[in-house]
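Entry under discussion copied across for reference:
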Amino acid sequence: MGLFLNMQQYQGDAPLGPGSPWLLKRPLGGLVSENRARIPVGAEQVSDIAPEGGRCRAVLESDMRVRPGAAEVLPRRKRYPMLRRWRWAAVGALLVVFLGCAETGKLSYERRLSVYRVERGNGGLLERFAPAFAAYNHRDPWNRIGRPCAEIGPDGKERVRVDPDQPVVYTMTRRFSTDRGRYTNLIYRIHFTGVPYSLIPFHLTAGENVGLLAVVTLDGTNRPVLFTTVNTCGCYLAILPTTDLPEACLPGDWKGSKPLDVFGETLPAEIDYKGAREPRVLIHLRPDVHRVMDVEVMEAGVLEAPWAHQVIPAPTAPMASLERLPVTGGGRTTSFYSGDWVDRGHVKASYKVWETLLMSWWSLDFFVGADKAYADPAETGNPFYTSLKPWNRTESDMWHFERFLRFWGWRL
């Protein structure tokens, strides 16, 4: 028994084995005939096998020593060392991204939790349904809700930052319609000085001037039916139904009462307003990274109990005022968002180094992770997309909320 090579098929020098276009697999035997060559058992190198009609040379390395068994000759796949290196680099990058997304900051002990709530005013819808925000590790300035501001630096250049000692909640109201009815979105925006740079734990979203959006969707009778949270870069989206949302409006693959897993954070499957006389939604923020780590409903009296929480009143301001920040020492105003064509509509100085390095090449967005304006993309040229797939930029844009809901499977 042996490995038979058809010499009519392998004319001339046709090397077999590692490094050749053909892979020699489990060969046998040993004889040379007119049109066939048989390689001896145990051979490591056989050369100059020259049957009539052709010449064949087989070079075998020690890890391909000839041994008894079935024999076959298979085409060897072409090797591309650079492609293989890039493939493993891509796998490593995606692993780092996943670990950064799933990272959860540690909670330190605090006798009283710091809670931001909007200041009382005229009792309108924006005030009535405004969520409160629980800020953990409040002693660290980057964990405090702040006020975007602008100033002239020592170098004479304009600088935009967030002042952590002056909390502000920016608000907006928008309405939309679907086949099922008319709805109102109450939109709340907050900002922080940034996410600190850290390797252990790894902060993928490290950068300055980061923020969070919370959207309360009311039906035609002003009942809350949806509660949506998303970081102002468009990431970590969570859409939570309330107990007032009809079951027919849920996505087809909705998992009932099973808690939602949002990149490592566990959120409730629904917001239950029932049973509370004066319900208030409390959003718990993960320290350092400012992600939503829990959402709960509690009575207003419990929320503001001094023995449980340190309540910090935060004034509200129209979201449009972010486009007219007074410049300290400049005698003028400036926008919180860039107007340059290359990064138009992004929050100034909010670039994310790690996200750009690890994610921009496959998301096809150099400014991936940078915070942005919640505005009409026809004016900013920058959709508030919530899907990283480039072909979903338009459909997942949150500005057109009815289309955004359809994209994510909601049937309002």
Notes: Residues 98-407 form one domain. The longest strand covers residues 181-191.
